[in-house]
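During the reporting period the student researcher (J.K.) took over the structure-prediction task from the postdoctoral fellow and processed the backlog of single-chain submissions. One of the processed entries is reproduced below for the supervisory committee.
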Amino acid sequence: MSYDNACKYLAEQYPADFVRWLLGVDVPQIDVLKTELTLEPIRADSVTFLQAANQILHIEFQTLTISNPPLNFRMLDYSVRLKRQYRCPVKQVVIFLQETTSEVAFIEQYRDDTTIHQYQVVRLWEQDSVTFLANPALLPLATLTRTDSPQGLLAQVAEQVATIPNREQRQNIAGCIEILAGLRFEKDLVQQFLREDIMKESVIYQDIVQKEALKLISRQLKRRFGDIDASLFEQVRNLSAEQLEDLGEELLDFSVVTDLVAWLEQQN
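J.K. obtained the following structure tokens:
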């Protein structure tokens, strides 16, 4: 899931760069559309919809090739729903992050007795790294591109990160690099090239840490108190990763739900 979060963050934070890369055009205004469509909702962290002029760019990032329903049918389904809701052309691109020999990564259409639906597939391990190294928005994906020297590529990525002048942007790009590079490199190796303190200060890193901490606390709360009131759980959801860690320790001493309520009041 963290891979999906990082990719979604990049596509939605830098939509113009992704439109330029995948569509080859510069558009003055790009809108990031919600990822829930009409009829039965389809929701996935790996999906991004960008409306550029009178066209929608649907980007789907994949690490797995097996899904239910199958990927190619899902692309058809998305396309029909998007056209019905927004009434404009739809360009679909599936980006496979991790190298695979599965035929799913090499199929670019859905076909049955009455329908043929086509979409584009980008296999990152086949892509030249030059385009990605030259653009901070695409830099985290560079770690997964074609190379004869994976460690040399990682070193180039680290060098490019260091040239980003804005500290906040540098932190967030480094955080995404750490996550995505994990599909190809050992964590210790990534941290040899990228400063760990910079990565951990990134928005995407903190967001993932917070979500993982929330999952753990949710299980602990359910085990201790069963299903708690929705408004109370919303207060827990809004806690920072550090506060959730503190709550995990305090929870050992809670005997009733009112103990949790009192602790949450102290955090405000």
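The committee noted the following: The beta strands are 30-33, 47-52, 55-62, 90-96, 109-111, 116-118, 120-123.
J.K. will present the remaining backlog at the next meeting.
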